[in-house]
């Protein structure tokens, strides 16, 4: 007579699906936590300083705006309304224009001067910065 064991022994196994769920939850938690630690809406900008390449020997036309919002083209004072007329004779075929604006100058005046230069034919604006 053959006796049966009253208890059938099962072989143990590791369930991997719950472990994958836990790892995914931890990954998502750490990603969201690291994003919450950064202030994504703030941008720190200091325009007058920076690294720039050396200018080539042939100097393009310079559009300057000083702290008093006075506009100059190659060191000659120009009114805001006369920029496009005055720049047409200076803009070369490459259309490069160096914009040198004081950090105290009004942003709106600088943008209006650049828009006037765009009407005169300037295609590329090079922003002058203080080299560190």
UniProtKB/TrEMBL annotation:
Gene Ontology MF annotations: transmembrane transporter activity
Main location: membrane
Localisation per UniProt entry: Cell membrane
Top-level taxonomic group: Bacteria
Keywords attached to this entry: Cell membrane, Membrane, Protein transport, Transmembrane, Transmembrane helix, Transport
Gene Ontology biological process terms, A to Z: protein transport
One GO location term (cellular component): plasma membrane
Membrane topology: Single-pass membrane protein; Single-pass type II membrane protein
UniProt-listed InterPro entries: ExbD
Family: Belongs to the ExbD/TolR family.
Stated name of the protein: Biopolymer transporter ExbD
Species name: Trinickia symbiotica
């Amino acid at each position: 007579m053959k006796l049966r064991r009253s208890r059938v022994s099962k072989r143990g196994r590791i369930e991997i699906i719950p472990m994958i769920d836990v790892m995914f939850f931890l990954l998502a938690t750490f990603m969201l936590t690291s994003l919450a630690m950064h202030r994504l809406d703030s941008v720190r900008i200091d325009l007058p300083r920076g690294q720039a390449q050396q200018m080539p020997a042939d100097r393009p036309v310079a559009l300057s705006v000083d702290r008093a919002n006075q506009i100059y083209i190659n060191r000659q004072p120009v009114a805001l309304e006369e920029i496009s007329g005055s720049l047409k004779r200076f803009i070369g075929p490459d259309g490069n224009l160096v914009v040198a604006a004081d950090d105290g100058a009004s942003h709106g005046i600088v943008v209006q001067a650049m828009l006037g230069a765009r009407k005169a034919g300037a295609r590329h604006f090079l922003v002058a910065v203080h080299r560190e």
